[in-house]
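As promised in the previous annual report, we have extended the structural survey to additional targets. Below is the entry for Tryptophan synthase alpha chain.
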Amino acid sequence: MSLTQQIRQAKADREILLMTHLVLGYPSFAVNREVIARMVAAGVEIIELQIPFSEPVADGPVILRANQEAIDRGVRVRQCLEFAAEMTAEHQIPFLFMTYYNILFKYGVEDFLAQARKVGVRGLIIPDLPPEEGEEYLAACRKHELAPIQIFAPTSSDERMAKLAGHGDGFIYCVARRGVTGAQTSFDREFDDYIARCRRATDLPLAVGFGISNRADVEMLKGKAEIAVIGSATIRLVEEHGPAAVTEFMEGLR
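The corresponding structure token record, generated without further manual editing, is:
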């Protein structure tokens, strides 16, 4: 079953799906392991595993700091691949890798994607790789049956959205606002118009992220998108209250 089919099947039983984000190795792989178990038990349908990178340009201060601390603690790509293999074997939901292109370039694009497939990852989000510069990446994704998830932004023209959608698979990640992750998003008429443009541009499911942090945000997305993406809010929660707080938080989002 393709990632798109799996999302649509899960969506049949839910008004909206939840996708969460964590930085691998922050604050530790042991904490990652507990957080993921709690997320899955609370009903999260998709989990995005970020491989730490030194210059995560799409990320706000919370995730940027988590990336840097993980790197400072010695987290390496090999460990992230091993951890992903453990998680996909234990939990029967889709896992994605999110990282930046230099990670793939240094590892070797073909080798990295072959390993991603081997460890059971279903797709990738690479924010700094436009399709015009990603021919090798896109070809390797097709070869290894991985979804190269594309990103729409409020600044994307209709033409640009159509082009991105033509290279994408799995779902489209719709950035809710200009800027980086972590800040609050306003769900106003401008946002509704933007999501309507996203919907016209593709038949793939839509995931909305950047600034989604509570039940009210998730409620606002019902009927507009298939997936709500929770990122910085979860990282802050674990920092302030520990992994045990994840269960109640996730269960309270829908």
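Confidence is low (pLDDT under 50) at residues 178-185. The radius of gyration is 17 Å. These points will be discussed at the next consortium meeting with the crystallography subgroup.
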